[in-house]
Amino acid sequence: MKTYKILLxxxxxxxxxxxxxxxxxxxxxxxxxxxxxxxxALDILQKEPIDILFxxxxxxxxxxxxxxxxxxxxxxxxxxxxxxxHAVEAFDLNAVDYLLKPFSFERFLQAVNKAxxxxxxxxxxxxxPNLEQTNDKKDPENVKDYMVAKxxxxxxxxxxxxxxxxxGLKEYVKVVCSSRSxxxxxxxxxxxxxxxxxxxxxxxxxxxxxxxKRVQTLEGNQLDVGGKxxxxxxxxRKDEVVKTLFGI
Length: 248
Hints:
By secondary structure, the protein is of the alpha/beta class. It is 27% helix and 32% strand. The protein folds into two domains: 4-124, Rossmann fold; 129-246, CATH 2.40.50.1020. It has helices spanning 13-24, 38-47, 64-69, 87-92, 105-121, 188-194, 238-246; strands at 4-9, 29-35, 52-56, 76-81, 97-100, 127-129, 146-151, 154-159, 163-169, 172-177, 181-185, 201-205, 208-211, 217-219, 222-224, 230-232. The protein has a six-stranded mixed beta sheet.
């Protein structure tokens, strides 16, 4: 089993203990150290190979974001903080995730899985804060065929006709397109309201929206949108889904 070396950095004793407790639940995580001081963390990072760094933002002497800026080859970094206003700066630094305190073990696990995916793919993370509003539905001339997301410091267009499906990930949404995916700090409801034309998309589950034209087959309570991905249908929506997507 592949193991991932982790370092926990937080100036709050209870937060450090919670992170350590959560980490011990996952046998493939190896805790290299935990420290309350960012200076101590820098010393460890210079001496030990760290795969995943859990990093608080507001700390004395040196903030978590400034600490990360000093690293030439930073680990896969998951910021932990009680303040949501730091999200944009965190993602500008290519953090793989952003845990807003207090967070659950489920949310912790989700962040760890993102970090593992990033490390295994050895590619820049596709995580971006805040979908920009690009459409004015009251003004047809201002309606665009794409939405805009910030990815690794770049502004990128995500064309609606390229979207296969959208998956809700609590504070985030994962927009899966033909060639790549984007994880955006946005609510499912807000994104659903901005997909255009709205008739091209359908909410089939509380956590999934599909592009109607991408749906190929229905088997049991799962939709095939191409490839190996199966999209679940909620029980209460199945009749509507079958009628809308298959006309029966």
